[in-house]
Automatic annotation (TrEMBL):
<dbReference type="InterPro" id="IPR011629">
    <property type="entry name" value="CobW-like_C"/>
</dbReference>
<dbReference type="InterPro" id="IPR003495">
    <property type="entry name" value="CobW/HypB/UreG_nucleotide-bd"/>
</dbReference>
<comment type="similarity">
    <text>Belongs to the SIMIBI class G3E GTPase family. ZNG1 subfamily.</text>
</comment>
<keyword id="KW-0547">Nucleotide-binding</keyword>
<keyword id="KW-0378">Hydrolase</keyword>
<keyword id="KW-0143">Chaperone</keyword>
<dbReference type="InterPro" id="IPR027417">
    <property type="entry name" value="P-loop_NTPase"/>
</dbReference>
<feature type="region of interest" description="Disordered">
    <location>
        <begin position="211"/>
        <end position="240"/>
    </location>
</feature>
<dbReference type="InterPro" id="IPR036627">
    <property type="entry name" value="CobW-likC_sf"/>
</dbReference>
<feature type="domain" description="CobW C-terminal">
    <location>
        <begin position="244"/>
        <end position="331"/>
    </location>
</feature>
<dbReference type="InterPro" id="IPR051316">
    <property type="entry name" value="Zinc-reg_GTPase_activator"/>
</dbReference>
<dbReference type="Pfam" id="PF02492">
    <property type="entry name" value="cobW"/>
</dbReference>
<protein>
    <submittedName>
        <fullName>CobW family GTP-binding protein</fullName>
    </submittedName>
</protein>
<feature type="compositionally biased region" description="Basic and acidic residues">
    <location>
        <begin position="219"/>
        <end position="240"/>
    </location>
</feature>
<dbReference type="Pfam" id="PF07683">
    <property type="entry name" value="CobW_C"/>
</dbReference>
Length: 335
């Protein structure tokens, strides 16, 4: 089977250690002969750190906006390009720290129709000292954003622990576990960690699920006009500790339309969104499939370039393995 490029999102407040972690991951990739590509998003018009990652790193930059709002379509395009031109072993998206991971997820799933990509995780880096100071204040935009980033992560790196005492560290670890009980947490100095603790083996990281922001607030609160539709479809129930998973499945060939519709009708409520491209063997046509809160929609398409048959499901703690098996049955030639 063709290689599916794993995609990771790196988030975290300004100065928390994102670039330090990225450099560490890139060094490890070089040492082990793996190619890691990077997509950098800077809110300003100039990228000041791209050159520091090394000229051997396939890189794309999205400048002058936040991934989650103004330049979402560009993200999908750049991801597709990086995957197509460089065939990397992984792609890391370093966000400005103000992007909301759920919207980034949306762009990644969009891109997965054109290139074989799969979002595997959202990694949040937090500055222990800064976080503790904000916790002590207990309010404010920065505090809210830090908390949201941690709640949205599937992996939390509590960095700069050299700047806090042992009791403070224990307090922060307990707090993070409370904000996001499902995320893996590692405490580090200079983001010193074992890259395999993030990559895991095979697809295990994807199966841990990707957390959603705890507050579910719909606005990007960082000084530019959010796209009016950019957030309307990805928040779901804004209850506390909502956690989502994503499942990406590349269909090996055409499927039966009736069996597919039946399967869609049987999806559990925990799957609240789906999309993809399917080819039906009985009608010999291709469709763009959209699914949201039990409503599905099929749009006949005749794509010009390469478009893969793929299904992406997004939901809240849905039975991922079971759905994967169902999809495999659906895709079996005898169906
Ligand atoms: N004391 C201390 N400093 C650290 C640690 N990790 C990183 N730093 C320093 O913190 C500064 C910011 O680190 P970066 O990796 O650039 O942080 P960033 O999140 O990429 O920053 P932005 O690009 O501004 O968002 C650098 O000077 C690092 O050397 C740590 O564990 N302890």
């Amino acid at each position: 089977m063709e290689h599916i490029v794993p995609v990771y999102v790196l988030t975290g407040f300004l100065g928390s250690g994102k670039t330090t972690l990225l450099n560490r991951l890139l060094d490890e990739a070089r040492a082990s002969g793996r190619k890691v590509a990077v997509l950098l998003n800077e809110a300003g018009d100039a990228n000041v750190e791209g050159f520091m990652l090394g000229s051997d790193v396939p890189m794309a930059e999205l400048l002058g906006g936040c991934i989650c709002c103004t330049i979402r379509a560009d993200l999908g395009m750049e991801l597709t390009k990086l995957a197509r031109e460089h065939r990397p072993d992984a792609i890391w998206i370093e966000t400005t720290g103000i992007a909301r991971p759920l919207e980034v997820l949306d762009s990644v799933t969009e891109a997965s129709m054109y290139e074989k990509l799969e979002l595997r995780g959202v990694v949040a880096v937090a500055d222990a000292r800064h976080l503790l100071d904000r916790v002590r204040i207990g309010a404010g935009k920065t505090y809210k954003l830090m908390r949201e980033q941690i709640a949205a992560a599937s992996f939390v790196v509590l960095n700069k622990t050299d700047l806090v005492g042992a009791a403070e560290l224990a307090e922060l670890e307990a707090l993070i576990a409370d904000w996001n009980p499902r995320a893996r947490l590692v405490s580090t100095v200079r983001t010193q960690l074992e890259p395999d603790s993030i990559y895991g083996s095979d697809r295990s990281f994807a199966a841990t699920g990707i957390g959603a922001p705890e507050t579910g607030s719909a606005d990007c609160d960082h000084g530019h006009d959010p796209h009016p539709h950019a957030h309307s479809h990805s928040h779901g129930d804004p209850s506390a500790h909502e956690h989502i998973n994503a499942l990406t499945y590349y269909l090996p060939g055409p499927i039966d339309s009736r069996a597919f519709e039946e399967w869609v009708g049987s999806l559990p409520d925990s799957v609240y969104r789906g999309k993809g491209v399917v080819t039906f063997r009985d009608t010999a046509s291709r469709f763009l499939f959209q699914y949201a809160y039990r409503e599905s929609d099929f749009l006949k398409i005749t794509p010009q370039g390469t478009v893969h048959d793929v299904l992406v499901l997004i939901g809240e703690q849905f039975p991922r393995e079971e759905l994967l098996k169902q999809l495999e049955r659906l895709a079996a030639p005898s169906q």
